[in-house]
Amino acid sequence: MRAKLSYAIAAAVLVFYFVLVGSRGVMLIQTGTLLTVTFGVAVLILPVIGVWFLWKNTEFVRKANQLAAELDAEGGLPLDELQRTPSGRIDRDSADEVFAKRKAETEASPDDWRSWFRLAVAYHDARDTPRARKAMQRAIALHMSTSKGAAASGSSVTSSSTGD
Question: What is the pLDDT of residue 137?
Fold first, then answer.
């Protein structure tokens, strides 16, 4: 809950900043000289990029949380089997050991979103954020494709009639 609150506060601050910067860009454009219009357009580009980035991150987090909730309901969330140092940090050797298990699980079932989800958690625990994000993106994509496939097969009703 604390992470969600922090994310919401950070997002709200960013949106406020985007509005502030955007209004300054509009003011520059309204001045009407070539130089201020050019600067105004350049200033407006930054909030547009920021809003797009914030939207993409929010969608990613929302989808990852949906997968976590579904996996939790199935009882398939990875257990915390990691050793910790006295300061509370994850022991590197322990993280590497769990990562090796998760990687083998994913290699055995490359089309299972659950194994990719658990691999993403292992990458995160090993402090490899870029790979954790890519693994989670793969889990999300696989989940979406299996959900669409299940919805399509579940909604198509086949009837067979036999003539006597």
Answer: 96
Mean pLDDT of 109-116: 93
* Contact status, residue 102 vs residue 118, Cβ threshold 8 Å: yes
R_g of the chain computed on alpha carbons: 23
Query: Do 102 and 78 touch, CB atoms closer than 8 A?
Result: yes
**Higher pLDDT residue, 18 or 127?**
18
Query: How far from the centroid of its chain's Cα atoms is residue 3's Cα?
Result: 14
Q: Is the pLDDT of residue 81 over 60?
A: yes
Distances from the Cα of 55 to the Cαs of 5, 50, 52, 76, 121, in angstroms?
A: 17, 8, 5, 29, 22
Q: Which two tokens stand for residue 145?
A: 């494709």
- Residue 63: which of 132, 3, 141 has the closest Cα? 141
